């Protein structure tokens, strides 16, 4: 068994760019949505005198890389965004900040022609203080130079696995705080870090470390914490007195929660809240966050342990992009994605291969879905990306330290060191692992390998997981079981996980005889279902496997790919890229993972049948299924399968259209399709 994670408590970051969160935090915010945009290298675009007659009006979130999806070329280079705003009188005398939740892939920010900062890394938030650059009573100009051009000093160094979108594709806001504040510029984190020192059923002893900042000395400052339960009832109030210096300080406080209720995954994702107030003689700065308390560990034989009990981790990988908007998701689209992950019954979610939006982690917290968060150190490396990788890891951990859903920090994916154990990627991984534990010793690190059990990159992180595509890129589907059993036998002390598995499916391909894998042009949907049936049967009965992650929840765009009849697309998703169609395999997993009643006819898009005698499958968690063909009852089948598949064989169709309906024994569920028989 590997290291047992210490007990800890985690807080949920509330993004001050969100209007509701800003109100909760008592911080006045201006959401910057309306911008002018122009693509290309422009001289003096940051100047107040620059005219915008030929600039495009856009609304943030925005990307200029839809060409990567739409097969019209893939622009990689500079672009500019400009907007103006006025400071309301209510912000007079306060400190002012600008916060970007994400800009792809690098940004240089100017306020009233003055450079206020640069940021390299397309997936983490960054925040600059602009108090001395803005002017009251007049319009202020913000200009942002953005680039998604390749940079071998920035991770990821290439786009072989996913597109490098450009643009201000997550929210932006200007907000104010009092002179004395809970620091919003400490790596754009919430400024609060909480650790459990002792935990019993009767008591949770917590240490809260708070980053405070001031531009003046203040005697008798006070931090006041009000803890509330999930119903909003006060649990306790704690006050900490200190002298606030003209600098940045870390204030440590100890509090205790009696009879704590644990955050317990999907069973009970219990969230407390804390209202943190920094109070001085002249002002109050306030931040409100949610938090959860839980423990976890890994066992080489029992798998994942949550709150001292085995807890099966089965779920999916997820990228953060839609066909309609690329990565520039609305709040509703973020919600839709997590609702689909929730609907399928996943207990775990790998947020690949980069830091996702605050919203994704927040929704995972509330739904009780464990989350694997990682940095974009993927595939290739240059030997020059080390400092940026450490920066992005620091931002990932500090910005998301407080989410109870996050249980591991991912350090790399499919990075291969072929030459020696002294290659730059090996050295960097060791440095990243050390940094992760320095920033957060309450979680383990993890990596995803596509090699064997022994490699130069293996066993540096606390946990190792494997991306295995048996039967698609190599071998046969059944090889998954023999590989796992052999690995477990040969390395009995090592917890195992499958971080990726899957095959591609095009919903418009419905002839199973034409399968062309893995890089052909025909990927029939029923082959994906067949693969997942066989593979899940292998995975589900091996408790020593601590986690399994389908690749992937949604089809994802990869500009350098051209396979499966759709250019620039990895079609291994259980849901289509535009989120309009849940593939058959989605319902297979829903029938196996979800507690919701499921009754679904598979191969429903195989409409044209060439024979009048057919067989087909139904995915269900109901005890009995009744079949009707053209309104006549023709068969009843009990559920005997351990993977929730009911099969109907030798079902006769009439010439022409046939209505196929299945009904659950209690008659509460019904599914129906129409298939056309052209008997040949």
Report on this model:
The chain is an alpha+beta fold. The strands form 10 sheets. The protein has an 8-stranded parallel barrel with strand order 25-26-27-28-29-30-31-32, surrounded by 4 helices. It has a 6-stranded antiparallel β-sheet with strand order 4-3-5-10-7-8, with no helix packed on it. Strands 1-21-20-15-16 form a 5-stranded antiparallel β-sheet. It is globular, with a radius of gyration of 27 Å. The termini are far apart. Residues 1-16 and 19-24 have low confidence and may be disordered.
| Integer-rounded radius of gyration | 27 Å
Percent in strands: 35-45%
Arrangement of strands in the largest sheet: 25-26-27-28-29-30-31-32
Quaternary status = single chain
Q: What global shape is seen?
A: globular
Question: How can the largest sheet be summarized?
Answer: 8 strands, parallel, barrel
How far the N terminus sits from the C terminus, by CA atoms, comes to 60 Å
Number of strands: 42
How many helices?
A: 9
Low-confidence stretches: 1-16, 19-24
Q: Which secondary-structure class do the elements indicate?
A: alpha+beta
The gist of it:
The chain is an alpha+beta fold. It is built from 9 helices and 42 strands. β20 (272-279) and β21 (284-294) form a beta hairpin.
């Amino acid at each position: 068994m590997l290291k047992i994670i210490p007990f800890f408590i985690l807080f949920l970051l509330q993004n001050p760019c969100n209007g509701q969160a800003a109100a909760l935090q008592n911080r006045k915010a201006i959401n910057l949505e309306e911008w002018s945009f122009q693509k290309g290298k422009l001289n003096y675009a940051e100047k107040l005198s620059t005219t915008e007659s030929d600039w495009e009006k856009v609304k943030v979130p925005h990307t200029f890389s839809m060409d990567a999806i739409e097969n019209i070329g893939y622009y990689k280079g500079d672009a500019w965004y400009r907007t103006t705003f006025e400071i309301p009188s209510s912000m007079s005398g306060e400190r002012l900040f600008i916060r970007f939740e994400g800009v792809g892939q690098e940004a240089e920010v100017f306020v009233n022609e003055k450079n206020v900062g640069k940021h390299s890394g397309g997936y983490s938030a960054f925040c600059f203080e602009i108090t001395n650059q803005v002017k009251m009573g007049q319009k202020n100009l913000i200009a942002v130079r953005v680039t998604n051009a390749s940079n071998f000093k920035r991770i990821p160094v290439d786009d072989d696995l996913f597109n490098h979108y450009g643009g201000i594709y997550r929210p932006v806001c200007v907000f104010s705080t009092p002179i004395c504040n809970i620091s919003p510029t400490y790596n754009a984190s919430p400024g609060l870090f909480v650790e459990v020192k002792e935990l019993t059923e009767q008591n949770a002893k917590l240490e809260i470390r708070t980053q405070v900042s001031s531009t003046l000395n203040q005697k008798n400052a006070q931090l006041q914490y009000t803890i509330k339960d999930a119903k909003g009832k006060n649990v306790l109030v704690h006050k900490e007195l200190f002298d606030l210096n003209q600098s940045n300080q870390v204030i440590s406080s100890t509090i205790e929660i009696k009879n704590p209720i644990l955050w317990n995954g999907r069973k009970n994702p219990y969230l407390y809240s804390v209202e943190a107030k920094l109070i001085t003689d002249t002002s109050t700065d306030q931040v409100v966050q949610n938090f959860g308390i839980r423990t976890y560990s890994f066992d080489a034989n029992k798998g994942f342990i949550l709150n001292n009990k085995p807890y099966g981790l089965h779920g999916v990988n997820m990228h953060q992009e839609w066909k309609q908007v690329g990565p520039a998701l609305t709040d509703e689209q973020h919600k839709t994605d997590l609702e689909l992950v929730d609907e399928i019954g996943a207990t775990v979610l790998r947020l690949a291969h980069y830091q996702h939006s605050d919203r994704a982690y927040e929704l995972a917290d509330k739904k009780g879905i464990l989350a694997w968060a990682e940095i974009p150190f993927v595939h290739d490396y240059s030997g020059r990306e080390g400092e940026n990788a450490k920066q992005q890891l620091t931002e990932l951990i500090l910005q998301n330290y407080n989410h109870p859903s996050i249980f591991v920090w991912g350090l790399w994916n499919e990075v291969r060191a072929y030459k020696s154990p002294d290659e730059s990627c090996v050295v960097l991984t060791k440095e990243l692992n050390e940094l992760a534990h320095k920033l957060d010793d309450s979680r383990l690190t993890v990596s995803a390998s596509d090699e064997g059990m022994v490699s130069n990159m293996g066993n540096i992180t606390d946990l190792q997981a494997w991306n295995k595509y048996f039967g698609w890129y190599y071998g046969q589907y059944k090889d998954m079981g023999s590989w796992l059993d052999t690995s477990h036998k040969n390395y009995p002390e090592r917890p195992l996980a499958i971080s990726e598995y899957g095959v591609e499916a095009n919903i418009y391909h419905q002839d199973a005889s034409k399968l062309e894998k893995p890089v052909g042009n025909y990927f029939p949907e029923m082959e994906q279902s067949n693969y997942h049936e066989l593979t899940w049967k292998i995975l589900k009965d091996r408790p020593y496997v601590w986690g399994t992650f389908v690749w992937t929840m949604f089809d994802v765009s990869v500009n350098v790919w051209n396979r499966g009849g759709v250019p620039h697309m990895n079609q291994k998703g259980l849901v289509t890229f535009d989120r309009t169609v849940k593939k058959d395999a989605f319902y297979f997993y829903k029938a196996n993972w979800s507690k919701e009643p499921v009754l679904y006819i598979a191969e429903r898009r195989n409409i044209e049948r060439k024979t009048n005698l057919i067989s087909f499958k139904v995915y269900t968690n109901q005890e009995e299924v009744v079949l009707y063909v053209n309104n006549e009852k023709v068969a009843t089948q009990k559920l005997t399968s351990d993977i929730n598949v009911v099969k109907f064989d030798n079902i006769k169709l009439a010439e022409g259209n046939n209505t196929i309906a299945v009904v659950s024994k209690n008659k509460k569920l019904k599914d129906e399709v129409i298939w056309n028989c052209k008997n040949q």
